[in-house]
Amino acid sequence: MSMQPAKLIACHECDLLQREIHLPTGGEAHCSRCGALLYRSSPRSLDNSLAFALAAAILFVIANIYPLLGIEMKGNPNATHLFGAVRYLWDHEMHLIAALTCITAVLVPALEIMMMIYLLLPLRFRVIPAGIPLILRILQGIKPWGMVEVFMLGILVSIVKLSDTSTIIPGVALWSFGGLTLMLAAVASSFNPRDVWNRIEQRVENGEYNE
Ligand SMILES: [Zn+2]
Question: Do the Cβ atoms of 139 and 109 come closer than 8 Å?
Fold first, then answer.
C-alpha cells in the first residue's frame, strides 16, 4: 500500500495541481503557490459530526412532538404544533408556503440527520455502510434546502408581532428548534466528506475491515 503514488489535489483557489502528503494530527496543508488551505488532518471531526447529528435527531423529535407556542387570545388558550402550523397554512389556501415550510423545516432536516447517522454510526463501529457516494451526493444536493434557521427567525418575528395582542408562552419545541438550528450548523461545519474516505482508506490499510 505504501507504494501507491500520492493522490493529486487541485487548489480550489488557483487550480494548481499538487501531490497530497500525509499530515500529522491537527496539521494543515496549504497551496504552495497561493497559500489557500487545501485540507487539514482532523481525525476526530467525524466523531464530532456524529455526536452533533445524534443530538440533532433527539431535538428534531422533540421539536415535532411538543407544542411550539402557547397562544392565549381573549382568554382562549391554544397550543400550536409545527405540524398544526403547516396544516393551518394548507387549509387557508397558502399551499406554496405550507409545502415550503414542510420541505425546508421538516423533510430536508430529517433526511439530512438520518443520512448523517446512517453514514457515521457504522463507520464509528468499523463497518462501511453501503452506497456512500450516493449518500454524499444527496447530502450535498439537499443542503441548500435545509432552512431550519429561516423557520426559526420566522417564528421569532411572529412572536414579537403576536405579543401585542396575545399572551405567548414559548413551548418545549421552540427551545428544541433553537438547539436544532445550532446542532445542524455544527454538523455542517464539522463534517467533511474527505474525512469519510480517509477513515475508510486508513482502516482498510490497517486491515480493520475485511469486506
Ligand atoms: Zn492555490
Answer: no
For residue 18, the CA-to-ligand 1 centroid distance in Å is 9
CB 79 within 8 A of CB 67: yes
Question: Does the CA dihedral 161-165-170-176 come out positive or negative?
Answer: negative
Instruction: Report the domain count for the chain.
Output: 2
User: How many angstroms separate the alpha carbon of residue 9 from the centre of ligand 1?
Assistant: 10
The answer, as to whether pTM is greater than 0.90, is no
Q: How much of the chain exceeds pLDDT 70, in percent?
A: 95
8 Å CB contact between 115 and 135: yes
Asked which of 25, 41, 57 is the last residue of a domain, the reply is: 41
Distance 188 CA to ligand 1 centre (A): 24
Residue pLDDT, tens place only, 133-161: 999 999 999 988 888 888 888 888 888 88
